[in-house]
C-alpha cells in the first residue's frame, strides 16, 4: 500500500491559494474576486448551484484557464508547475474516454508520467476497477468511466486531489466505495478539494465547506458553522389552547408560524427563547432543532425555499399563520 505523505513543514505555503481571482467569459463574470486558502491535508468541498462558478474555479486552480485578474498558487507554485511536478491529480467532469485502450493501460500510462506513482493495481482497486481493468475505456458505462477518471487522478499519488462533481454518474454502492477511497487518501495526508451539488456529501466528507454563488464565496466554514451562520434554530411546542399573540416578541424570535395547535419559532437565540417559554409555562412538546445544511445553503445563496414546510423569512414582528 502507498505510504502516508510526509507532513508539510510549518510555514510551508498552503496547498491552494487564490488571491482576488476573477474570470469572465464575455459578459458573464464566472468568478468574481475569489480569495481562498486550503491547508495541506484538508478536505474541502466547493458547494454551489448550477452555474455558480465551481468548474471555472477548478479550471483556474489546475491552470487550464488563466485568470483575468489575481493569482492562483498550488504549494506556492504556479498551477502549471505543480501539475508538471506531479503534485496534483484531477478528475474532471467532461474528460473524453481515450479510444481503444483498456482501463489498466490508461492508468499505467498516466502512472509513468508521475515521479512517484502508486502501483497501478492499487489505483485500480481504490477506484473499484479491478474487475474492469481489461475492458476498453471507450466501451464503459458512464459510472464505470467516471471510476477510470478517479483512478487516473489517484495513480500519481498526488499531494492534492481535485475532483469536479466526482459522483454525478455513480450508483449508491459505487458512491460509497468512492468516498471510502477518498477518506483513505485524506487520512494519509492528501489534500482533497471536490466540487458538488450534494449537500449531504459536503456535510459527510469535507472538513470545510466553501459555498460559491454567482462567482463569489458567500460562506466558508464547517457544516456546523454554516448552519449557525444561516441563523434561526427552530423552537417548537404545543400551544395547548394558548393564544399565539406575543410570541414574536420573545427574546431571539424572528418569525412565528402556527400550524393547528403547534407553534414554531425561528430564533437567533434558542436558549433565551426556551427560558422565556419555560417562564410562560409553555413547555408541552418543546423541541429545539438546528437548521439543516439545506436551510443554510438556501439562505446563503438566496434560492427559493424548496418546500412549503420551510419557515418563511418574515419580518421580526410577523406572525405567519398556516392552517
Ligand atoms: N467557456 C465558457 N464560455 C462562456 N461561459 C462560460 C464558460 N464556462 C463557464 N461559463 C459560464 O460561467 C458561469 C459559471 O460556470 P461554471 O461551469 O463554473 O459553474 P458550475 O458552478 O461549475 O456549474 P454546474 O454545477 O452547472 O457545473 C456560468 O454562467 C457559465 O455559463
Automatic annotation (TrEMBL):
Residues 16-239 form the ABC transporter domain. InterPro entries: AAA+_ATPase (IPR003593), ABC_transporter-like_ATP-bd (IPR003439), ABC_transporter-like_CS (IPR017871), ABC_transporter_ATP-binding (IPR050763), P-loop_NTPase (IPR027417). PROSITE patterns: ABC_TRANSPORTER_1 (PS00211), ABC_TRANSPORTER_2 (PS50893). It holds the Pfam family ABC_tran. GO terms for biological process: response to antibiotic. Its main location: membrane. It is found in: Cell membrane. GO terms for cellular component: plasma membrane. It is a peripheral membrane protein. Keywords: Antibiotic resistance, ATP-binding, Nucleotide-binding, Transport. It comes from the Bacteria. SUPFAM superfamilies: P-loop containing nucleoside triphosphate hydrolases (SSF52540). GO terms for molecular function: ATP binding; ATP hydrolysis activity. This is ABC transporter ATP-binding protein. It comes from Streptomyces subrutilus.
Amino acid at each position: 500500500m502507498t505510504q502516508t505523505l510526509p507532513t508539510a513543514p510549518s510555514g510551508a505555503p498552503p496547498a491552494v491559494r487564490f488571491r482576488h481571482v476573477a474570470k469572465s467569459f464575455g459578459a458573464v463574470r464566472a468568478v468574481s474576486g475569489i480569495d481562498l486558502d486550503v491547508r495541506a491535508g484538508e478536505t474541502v468541498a466547493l458547494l454551489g448551484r448550477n452555474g455558480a462558478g465551481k468548474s471555472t474555479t477548478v479550471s483556474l486552480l489546475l491552470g487550464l484557464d488563466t485568470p483575468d485578474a489575481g493569482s492562483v498558487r498550488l504549494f506556492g507554485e504556479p498551477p502549471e508547475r505543480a501539475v508538471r511536478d506531479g503534485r496534483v491529480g484531477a478528475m474532471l467532469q467532461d474528460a473524453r474516454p481515450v479510444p481503444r485502450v483498456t482501463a489498466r493501460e490508461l492508468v499505467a500510462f498516466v502512472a509513468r508520467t508521475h515521479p512517484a506513482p502508486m502501483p497501478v493495481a492499487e489505483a485500480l482497486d481504490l477506484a473499484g476497477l479491478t474487475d474492469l481493468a481489461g475492458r476498453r475505456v471507450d466501451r464503459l458505462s458512464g459510472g464505470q468511466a467516471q471510476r477510470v477518471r478517479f483512478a487516473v487522478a489517484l495513480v500519481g499519488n498526488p499531494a492534492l486531489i481535485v475532483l469536479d462533481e466526482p459522483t454525478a454518474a455513480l450508483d449508491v454502492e459505487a458512491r460509497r466505495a468512492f468516498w471510502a477511497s477518498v477518506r483513505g487518501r485524506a487520512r494519509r495526508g492528501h489534500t482533497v478539494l471536490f466540487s458538488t451539488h450534494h449537500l449531504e456529501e459536503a456535510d459527510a466528507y469535507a472538513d470545510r465547506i466553501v459555498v460559491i454563488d454567482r462567482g463569489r464565496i458567500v460562506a466558508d466554514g464547517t457544516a456546523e458553522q454554516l448552519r449557525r451562520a444561516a441563523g434561526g434554530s427552530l423552537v417548537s411546542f404545543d400551544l395547548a389552547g394558548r393564544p399565539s399573540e406575543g410570541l414574536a416578541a420573545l427574546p431571539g424570535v424572528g418569525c412565528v408560524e402556527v400550524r393547528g395547535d403547534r407553534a414554531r419559532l425561528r430564533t437567533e437565540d434558542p436558549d433565551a427563547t426556551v427560558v422565556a417559554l419555560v417562564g410562560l409555562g409553555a413547555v408541552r412538546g418543546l423541541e429545539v432543532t438546528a437548521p439543516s445544511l439545506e436551510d443554510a445553503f438556501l439562505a446563503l445563496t438566496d434560492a427559493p425555499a424548496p418546500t412549503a414546510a420551510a419557515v418563511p423569512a418574515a419580518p421580526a414582528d410577523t406572525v405567519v399563520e398556516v392552517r
